[in-house]
Structure formats: structure tokens, C-alpha cells
## 1
Amino acid sequence: MIQARTRSPEDTKNLAAAMAELAQPGDLLLLVGDLGAGKTTFTQGFAAALGISEPVTSPTFTLAREYHGRLLLHHLDVFRLDQISEVLDLGLPELLDSDGVILIEWGDAIRQALPNDYLEVALTFIEGQPGPLDERMVVLTPVGSGWQARADDLTAATEPWLEASSQ
Ligand code: ADP
Ligand code: MG
């Protein structure tokens, strides 16, 4: 588990961009966190670092959006129940077969249907302490061999954002 902290939306984008440098075809990232935590913001920074110049918007009313950069990026949001059932019924096997990188907002909702090989990115508001409201805790948990093998690279790439406790 890697514990990081960001201080602004731009900062979260920069963290995501640093992580995107490690992305490989077939990667799966689960973006976890409440509404407004920064899952879409994270995706925007990740996409920009893959060379995607199109604006990345929330896929709330479409099942998945696809963007072409250094790698193909699939951006999903499974917040609503109908999105969950749709992705489970239709899109998932095909997506998981693709060579793209898949980022799923609220991905923990469909964890059981996903392969046991992903990076969980959990964004949380930092409450109950003085300081700017723009701070977020970002906890990275590599699950399975694919990301565990890159845990050291992940630590190195995210070094500027790491909490002292996880260094
Ligand atoms: P989600 O997709 O998790 O619902 P969004 O990325 O759409 O969240 O929204 C996050 C909101 O919080 C945006 O308005 C963004 O500007 C704001 N924000 C403030 N500080 C941060 C931060 N450190 N990281 C990400 N977003 C932040
Ligand atoms: Mg979102």
C-alpha cells in the first residue's frame, strides 16, 4: 500500500500523469472514492500523460468512453445500478480482452467480476483537520502480480506525493 497526498486538482492530475508513465497494455485501475473525491480528475491527468488531447469527461451517461493515445484508454463509471448491470452483461469481457488500459470509477462496485490483477486508487477527502479543502489522500493498493511487480516503480514515480509514513 502506498499512501500519497495531493493538494489541488492539478496536483492530482500530476500524480496520475506520473503513474501513467508505468501503464502497460491490459492494465486495470479501480478508482474508488466518494462523489467529488477526484476520480475523473485523476483520469484526466492520466489521459493527458498518455498523449490524449481530447477533453476527458465523466462517462456518467455512457457506459464507456474510449480515447486513443500512446495506449488505448477505456474510461468507465459504474456508479449507477444500470451501469453496473450493463457492464456486467455486455461490455466487460470484451474490454478485459482489449489491449487498452481500463480505468473504472467506482470500480469496487464490480470487484467480484474483475480479474484479481489491478491497481486500486482510493481517493478520500481529508477531514477533521485544519488545512485547505483541496487536499486528498490517495492510497494505491496493487492487487495481483501485474502491479505488485511494479510496486517499487510506483513508489519511485509517486515519490513527490508520498506521505512520510509510507516511505
Ligand atoms: P469524482 O469523479 O470522484 O466524482 P471529480 O474529479 O469529478 O470527482 O471532482 C473532483 C472535484 O474536486 C473537482 O471539482 C476538483 O476541482 C475538486 N478538487 C479539489 N481538490 C482536489 C484534489 N486534490 N484532487 C482532485 N480534485 C480536487
Ligand atoms: Mg467522476
## 2
Amino acid sequence: MEFFIDSADIEAIRELCAFLPIDGVTTNPTIMTKSGKEPEQVFAELAEVLSEDQKIIAQVVSLDYEGILAEAQRLAQIRGGRNVVVKIPVTREGLRAIPAVKAMGISVLATGIYSPDQAFWAAKAGADYLAPYVNRMCAYGDGVGQVVELVRTLAQYGMGAKVCAASFKNVDQVHRLLAAGVPAITVSPDVIREMVGHPGTSAAMDTFTADWERAYGRTSL
Ligand code: E4P
């Protein structure tokens, strides 16, 4: 399975990649603007901080067919096109653009997915990844349940598209999708930090160190 960081915060990406086997980074236009930097600078920094094995997944901004095609070609040049995936929204123009962008040899992640039906059509159009917005879907119904069902639907038809679950607000949503076997997921730095930190672990280590020091007068073996 693949685990991505949903962020353009270079310091947060550097911090997490230093101790976790992260498979790459996803951004969207809003995430890019939060960096406070020009897009070219963010892409250059991502290319510097990530290895070539780690994917850079970046989104087009234009919403018309021609604009999507042109921007997909530009984004595909980040880092010389190595391991780059272009995010295209599942609008009518986007669904039309997906096969055309794929025909250019560019990998595609279909984004802005609020329903399993939109995801189904993006998969049929040839998208490599499908990004259902789990937390946002929860505003309309059982977002987590719908994404679990989507994974099953794709498997039933043997469709190659991978679900890359996105838009999480808490660890429980992430946990439930991991337990259901979601093949890819993208999560914000804050939620990833919550996943790996537990007060019980810190307390246990403090007790081990204190017991050892009391007995042996040192804090190492
Ligand atoms: C992923 O790639 C999406 O753009 C992102 O997860 C959306 O997250 P949000 O719902 O927190 O904005």
C-alpha cells in the first residue's frame, strides 16, 4: 500500500520523511497557497526533499479541457517527469481530459470525488488513482463506508484504478480505511503525527529509563 503526506509544508514533509517510509506527497491548489510560496518554488523544494522513488502528486488549476491538458503537461515536467502524478478533478471537463492525459503517458489521480459513482466513472476513464474526499463525504452520509464499498466495487470489476483516500480530519477515519485495506491514502502532517504518537508509549519509556537509572546509575545499556 502507499501512504502519502497531504501537504506542501516542506519542513513538515522533511520531518516526517526522516523517520517514516512515506511514498510521496499530494497537494491541491489550496494546500499550495497555504505554503505562502510561488508554485515553482514549492515544486522545486518538493523535488529536493523527496527521493525519486517518492511520488509528487500535483493538481491542475484550470477547469477547461484545453487548460487541463496544457497544465497536465507542465506538471508532468516537475523533476523531469520522474514519478509525477497529475491530479484532475472529476468534473465533465476533467472526465473528458483523463483519457487524453493518459494517452500522453502521464499518470492521473482523479480528485474532488464526493461519491462512489464519480469514482467509478473516473476509473472507467482510465485514472490510475481515485481520491474520494472522506471527511467531506461525511457531510453527505457515511463517507468511510462509501469508500470501503468503492474499494470492493473496483475489485469486483478488476478495475486497475487505486483508491487513494483523502481529506481526513481525525485518526479514526484513517484507521477505519486502513483496516478495510485501502490501497493508498493521503493524510495531513497533523493527523500522521497523531497516528504515531501515544502518551502510553512515552510513559512506558520514562518508566523503563527511571527503573534502569535507579538500579544501575545510568540511562544506557
Ligand atoms: C487530497 O489530495 C485532497 O485534495 C485533500 O485531501 C482535501 O483535503 P481537505 O478536505 O482537508 O481540504
